[in-house]
């Protein structure tokens, strides 16, 4: 670690001692409100502790140090918020996602930045979230499902393969590159133990390779943000400098943000003194004129009456659209802008799963209810965040409900869907996935 400290002293100069003082304090903890499901005002009224605004995004807040077991909170299970280190939200803010954008998050697990992008798209455009490591890609998929994002494609593909197949496809690309993790040393002692100058150099080489893959997927005139959670000059300014030298069609541009501090001409650095564990982000523009190039999506055969009747029995007005596709007994509803004729890209899921054929019937899927708003569901039970019923449901127990509820029924916490069950005779048979349940 002496080499790391020497580098930090050279980087920070007279602020080095202030930097060291933060290693004697608690880590920054934060959450980001998922505005697809919940407003900031509503979460503040329900969460049970004070939320203090961060400077890194409009819906990011600091969590008090005394708060524990927040992952077991029913509002977390419902997808009302995402637990996220505060400065990690800065990169998507700099990407400046707008509705109808086509956005690629190339190194997306566990999903904090992808779900932030999905929230900004607000069901429009297309989000493509990729993760090369399979088990991490499954975690990414679970988080996208929990946050109720319907217009996402999740893949488990090598960046160079994915980007070569999706050439000039995206308006915006995020490369939150694997790094030496120097910004995580305060909260992850393993990252500090694994650090070495050789590891930093290896990360920088890999990061440049990923950037050179990502550039192919970006349209002319498009925006790419490169970010890391390390302080390393080699992995930050060094990688950006080399990329710009090798790719004169790209330029570093001003992200028009005030958080953190300047790096290079327009990039931003965040140290603990700036209110977060540590981040670096640079906004790049591919020269040229941004032109709409998205082709018409292939038609999908109209779903048969049985599937549509099932859809209508659960939800009103078919809220996820009608791009229905049945494969291996599962009923998918694809995003409006997804071209499903893609082969060899290791796609884990596109859109949501409405249900699954089981013997001679169709059973609903958890992802459909997580994506639905309470007023879109035919049958609903709504519990308070502090109620016994919602905790029993999240434990996987059968619960008592009104006899008026019949059949598959959405379970909500203060108006936010968090799962479903099957109602009969004033009882709700629990359908909350076993892998998500709270253990007693």
Describe, in plain words, how this protein is organized in 3D.
The protein is of the alpha+beta class. The protein is 28% helix and 25% strand. It is built from 14 helices and 23 strands. The protein has helices at 2-12, 16-21, 40-46, 74-77, 90-95, 112-121, 134-146, 159-165, 189-194, 197-217, 237-246, 305-314, 366-371, 388-395; strands spanning 30-33, 52-53, 60-62, 81-83, 102-105, 126-130, 152-155, 170-176, 218-228, 250-253, 261-263, 267-270, 279-286, 324-327, 330-333, 347-350, 352-358, 361-364, 380-383, 399-400, 407-413, 416-424, 427-430. The chain is globular. 47% of the residues are buried.
Report mean pLDDT, rounded to a whole number. Answer: 94
| Proportion of residues in β-strands | 25-35%
Number of helices: 14
Biggest sheet details: 10 strands, mixed
Task: Give the radius of gyration.
Answer: 23 Å
3D shape: globular
Q: What helical percentage do the residues reach?
A: 25-40%
How many beta-strand runs?
Answer: 23
List low-confidence stretches.
none
First-to-last CA distance: 41 Å
The secondary structure category is alpha+beta
Can you give keywords for this protein?
ten-stranded mixed beta sheet; 14 helices; 28% helix; 25% strand; 440 residues; alpha+beta; globular; five-stranded mixed beta sheet; 23 strands
Q: Secondary-structure map with pairings?
A:
Blueprint: H1 2-12, H2 16-21, E1 30-33, H3 40-46, E2 52-53, E3 60-62, H4 74-77, E4 81-83, H5 90-95, E5 102-105, H6 112-121, E6 126-130, H7 134-146, E7 152-155, H8 159-165, E8 170-176, H9 189-194, H10 197-217, E9 218-228, H11 237-246, E10 250-253, E11 261-263, E12 267-270, E13 279-286, H12 305-314, E14 324-327, E15 330-333, E16 347-350, E17 352-358, E18 361-364, H13 366-371, E19 380-383, H14 388-395, E20 399-400, E21 407-413, E22 416-424, E23 427-430
Parallel strand pairs: 5-6, 5-8, 6-7, 8-9, 19-21
Antiparallel strand pairs: 1-3, 1-4, 2-3, 7-16, 9-13, 10-13, 11-12, 12-13, 14-15, 15-17, 17-18, 20-23, 21-22, 22-23
Helix pairs in contact: 8-10, 10-11
């Amino acid at each position: 670690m002496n080499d790391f400290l020497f580098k930090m002293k050279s980087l920070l100069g007279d602020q080095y001692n202030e930097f060291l003082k933060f290693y004697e304090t608690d880590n920054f903890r934060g959450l980001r409100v998922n505005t697809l499901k919940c407003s900031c005002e509503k979460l503040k009224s329900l969460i049970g502790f004070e939320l203090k605004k961060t400077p890194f995004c409009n819906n990011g807040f600091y969590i008090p140090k005394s708060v524990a077991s927040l992952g077991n909170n029913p509002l977390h299970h419902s997808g009302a918020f995402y637990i996220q280190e505060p400065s990690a939200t800065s990169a998507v803010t700099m990407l400046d996602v707008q509705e109808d954008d086509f956005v690629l998050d190339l190194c997306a697990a566990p999903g904090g930045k992808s779900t932030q992008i999905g929230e900004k798209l607000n069901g429009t455009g297309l989000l493509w979230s990729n993760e090369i490591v399979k088990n991490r890609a499954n975690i990414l998929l679970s988080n996208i499902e929990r946050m109720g994002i319907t217009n996402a494609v999740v893949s488990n593909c090598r960046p160079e393969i994915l980007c070569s197949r999706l050439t000039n496809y995206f308006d915006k690309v995020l490369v939150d590159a694997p790094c030496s993790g120097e910004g995580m040393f305060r909260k992850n002692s393993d990252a500090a133990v694994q650090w070495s100058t050789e590891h930093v150099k290896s990360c920088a080489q890999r990061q440049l390779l990923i950037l050179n893959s990502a550039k192919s997927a970006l349209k002319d005139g498009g925006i790419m943000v490169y970010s890391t959670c390390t302080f390393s000059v080699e992995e930050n300014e060094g990688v950006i400098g080399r990329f710009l030298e090798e790719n004169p069609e790209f330029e570093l541009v001003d992200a028009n943000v005030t958080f953190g501090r300047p790096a290079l001409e327009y990039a931003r650095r965040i140290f603990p003194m700036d209110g977060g564990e540590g981040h670096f982000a640079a906004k790049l523009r591919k020269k040229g004129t941004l032109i709409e190039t998205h082709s018409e999506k292939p038609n999908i055969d109209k779903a048969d009456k049985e599937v549509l009747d099932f859809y209508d029995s659960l939800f009103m007005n078919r809220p996820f659209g009608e791009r229905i596709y049945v494969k291996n007994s599962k009923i998918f509803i694809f995003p409006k802008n997804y071209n499903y004729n893609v082969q060899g890209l290791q796609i884990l899921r596109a859109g949501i799963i409405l249900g699954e054929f089981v013997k001679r019937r169709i059973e609903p899927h958890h992802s459909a209810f997580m994506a639905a708003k309470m007023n879109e569901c035919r049958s609903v039970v709504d519990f308070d965040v502090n109620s016994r019923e919602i905790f029993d449901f999240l434990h996987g127990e059968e619960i008592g409900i009104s006899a008026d509820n019949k059949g598959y029924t959405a379970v909500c916490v203060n108006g936010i869907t968090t799962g479903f069950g099957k109602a009969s005779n004033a009882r709700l048979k629990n359908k909350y996935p076993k892998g998500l349940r709270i253990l007693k």
